[in-house]
Write a structure and sequence with these properties.
This protein has about 110 residues and is α+β, with helices and mostly antiparallel strands. The chain has one domain. It is about 45% helix and about 25% strand. The chain contains 4 helices and 4 strands; from the N terminus they run H-E-E-H-H-E-E-H. It has a 4-stranded antiparallel sheet with strand order 2-1-3-4. A hairpin with a 2-residue loop joins strand 3 and strand 4. Helix 1 packs antiparallel against helix 3. The longest helix has 18 residues. The chain is globular.
């Protein structure tokens, strides 16, 4: 694990290497959390139909939701309670994550 990367980025890298290493999927997952419960409350997936099916078939969707629950709880434990929502971007199966406030995440979802 690379100590230069954030906890969240390292975990995302591990998940995509495990499940998507031989694919080139591109798209976004905009996610929202229930701040009181400290877990994911919903997500919008923006992928081509065939990529979306591949993510489901490889169990990536389920595993990412579980990982996001862990990351949200980690951020809450670290005191980052104002930014528990965000976007996971996959570019040719290479992940990145941006954390947002609820309003910022809503704006991301409203973008085409």
């Amino acid at each position: 694990m690379n100590p230069e990367l954030s906890f969240a980025q390292n975990r995302l890298n591990q998940l995509t290497e495990q499940l998507l290493s031989v694919t080139a999927v591109t798209g976004d997952i905009i996610f929202f959390s229930d701040e009181d419960a400290g877990e994911i409350s919903g997500a919008t997936w923006r992928f081509k139909d065939e990529d979306h099916a591949l993510l489901k078939d490889r169990n990536f969707k389920f595993m990412l939701m579980e990982l996001l629950n862990t990351l949200i709880q980690h951020r809450a434990d670290e005191g980052h309670t104002n930014t528990l929502h965000g976007v996971v971007h996959l570019e040719k199966s290479s992940p990145s994550i941006q954390w947002f406030t609820s309003d910022e995440a809503e704006q991301q979802r409203d973008l085409d």
